[in-house]
Amino acid sequence: xxxxxxxxxxxxxxxRADGLRFALLVSRFHSDVTERLLDGAxxxxxxxxxxxxxxxxxxxxxxxxxxxxxxxxxxxPRHDALIALGCVVRGETPHxxxxxQEASAGLGAVARAASIPVMFGVLTTDTLEQAYARAxxxxxxxxxxxxxxxxxxxxxxRKLAER
Length: 163
Prior knowledge:
Rossmann fold; 4 strands; 5 helices; alpha/beta; 44% helix
């Protein structure tokens, strides 16, 4: 959860979303949590100047499907950043580890190969209560924090291109 130890208060760079287009990739599994993450991301981007029409929302079944869909999205030069949002809650079997590992590794591989920022907004929690705590209001929402990070990374990429 964001708070005193969070880096959100120490962000640097430009946080302007006007004129930018975003892909918001959202897992439907645990939709009660992921819809809150989506609301947080959407609120952040609109607060920073994005038009709702410039936010493309793409839903997939679960966190497992995020990397393969992200790879398809970054291959089409339409967005300035991609924000992947999901939620995996630990259960009684090793399934949690497999899904978390592949979502993380898969999105990491997409991010390293992409020409746009690819943000990891997948909650990996032990309990549903922990997930709800990370999908709160404002800066206490990891979707919001992820969107703010996307704005910062767009600025970083622009500055690197100017060198």
